[in-house]
Design a protein that fits this description.
This protein has 200 residues and is of the alpha/beta class. The chain is built from 7 helices and 9 strands, in the order αββαβαββαβαβααββ. The chain has a single domain, classed as 3-Layer(aba) Sandwich (Rossmann fold). 37% of the residues lie in helices and 18% in strands.
């Protein structure tokens, strides 16, 4: 591991957390702002977050939807439910997002709603590819499937290959999605080429 890679992995990912309402958030501030822009501009009826860690991003999304007067619902999926993270619009689904029973719960909670999906779980190539195939159905035309931490491949950090290769494989067989690099407008992002716009 090079010095650059060591500094990124240890100092950025594991020490310098962003916080929201006392909970750690593994998201840099610029990506936080872009997420808010996407929600404001696309008005999703539903937001699904796969991989919630301590629930900070999930809670922020719910609070942001409150602030803009939306009636959207939020579904958080994780192996373990973040403790003490409650909000009237958040529904938690606990378990492996690839499990059929978990997916069935998400389908039931989503109903006819479609919107924004954020994939931030296990970033191994084969797992990310499977998640994208199972969950793109919940993305509304004009909204996004966000694949987080594609930067790992730019820095050749494990898992390698990982989410970025999964993105390329996915868009190659799903022409209804396009990589939208305008969402990288602040340059510094953990998600280069990870903003997938559903065009139709």
């Amino acid at each position: 591991m090079t010095l650059r890679e060591w500094l990124y992995f240890h100092n950025v990912m594991h020490r310098h957390y962003t916080h929201y309402r006392g909970r750690k958030m593994l998201k840099p501030p610029f990506d936080w702002v872009v997420l808010g822009d996407i929600i404001d501009e696309t008005s999703p009826e539903l937001v699904i977050e796969i991989g919630s860690y301590e629930g900070a991003t999930t809670l922020w999304i719910a609070d942001h939807l409150d602030a803009i007067g939306s009636d959207a619902q939020v579904i958080g999926i994780d192996i373990t439910q973040p403790p003490a993270v409650t909000h009237p619009r958040i529904s938690w689904v606990t378990g492996d997002c690839l499990d059929e029973a978990v997916l069935a719960q998400v389908v039931d909670l989503a109903g006819e709603r479609r919107g924004l999906v954020i994939e931030d779980s296990d970033h191994k190539l084969h797992i990310t590819k499977r998640i994208l195939e199972l969950y793109y159905r919940f993305v509304a035309p004009g909204n996004y499937l966000i694949v987080e931490d594609t930067i790992t491949e730019f820095l050749q950090l494990p898992p390698f290959p990982g989410p970025l290769e999964a993105v390329h494989d996915f868009v190659a067989v799903h022409p209804e999605f396009a990589i939208d690099r305008t969402r990288e407008k602040y340059i510094l992002t953990y998600n280069p080429m990870g903003y997938l716009l559903r065009c139709r």
